[in-house]
Request: fold
Amino acid sequence: MKKIISSSNPILKEVKSLYKKKERYNRGLFLIEGVKIVEECIHSNGNIAYILISDDLFNSTGGGELFELIKGKGYETIYLSTNLLKEVADTENPQGILAVVKINSTSIEQILKMENKFIIILDGLQDPGNLGTIIRTADAFKTSGVVMTEGCVDVYNPKVIRSTMGSIFHVPTFYTENKIEPIVERITLGKGFCNCDWE
Reply:
């Protein structure tokens, strides 16, 4: 297992950069933190790039079992001190585990091709907790996906991810900086796309 002993380590610099939206999309990576969500990511076949752990993991409920699962799956795992992990964690009392996950991009076309056409469209939703709750609800009702238009908080914001409680790995999401009207038109009327640069 690799070890990191300095806060100037390039891996920790990358992790810290992922708290910025621009860097998340430039690198195609986002962060998850905590025993339950990392476990859910593994069980949902999330594309984990690497995992950071500290000794606090073994004092967290389910931490020992999760560590054995991680070892069995062969994920790249990096050990660091409690203080170093706290430096890069988003929570006040981290559980000793943080994972860097590759973004699994979903296109609007993929969502529209799904058999179940139950789609949630959000416009200008800025509260991370509310977005996370909606994604959890979408998961419970087996929706085709959640579409976010201009003004919405980034779905890979750490506070959103934490609020989804793992549902982010079950619900397809699509974000565009364009307005809501062409999305609604496409879904409800079956018309072609407008001349927009879809993101």
